Amino acid sequence: MKRLALIPLLLLSTFCASGGGGSGAVARPGHGAIAIQLVPNPIVAYKVSGETYDFPFEVVIRETGGRPVEISRVSAEVFALGGIRIADESYDAAKIRSLGYSTSLPANGELRYKFAPRKSVPDDRLFSSVSAKLRVDAVDDSGTPTSATIEVTVRR
User: Fold this and answer.
1) Which residue, 68, 42, 66, 64, is CA-closest to 55?
2) 77 vs 52: CA distance, rounded Å
3) pLDDT at residue 7 in the model
4) Which position among 14, 24, 78, 80 has the lowest Cβ density within 10 Å, counted as fewest Cβ atoms?
């Protein structure tokens, strides 16, 4: 009976480790891996004026494989109305460093990137159907790539 109780936990941990609903990459033994979290999730949009909104959030990146990694890219795709891509944005390592953030993540360490993009939203009804997929790409100190993605919603 105890074995049956463990099956759902094993399935859940496999699902989350594979990126199916979680924020981490599959850790290959001996290689770096990352997990990401967005704070807050959902992102809260703040009206600046007219159709202009700020979307402040923080990306928390953790190294989970026990090897140092170098962040190479942070990107986001924004979707509305059942999956129609309405925007995308990407920051390469040089752009991340130009914002004053490190791209070097030590083994079992953590980085935090704060973003507050300002965007025009022509119709407030979009807030009820907007989601985004954030992806972080990195390379460990042996040259092995790793990435993690997370989905987030937006509210007003």
Assistant:
1) 42
2) 19
3) 29
4) 14
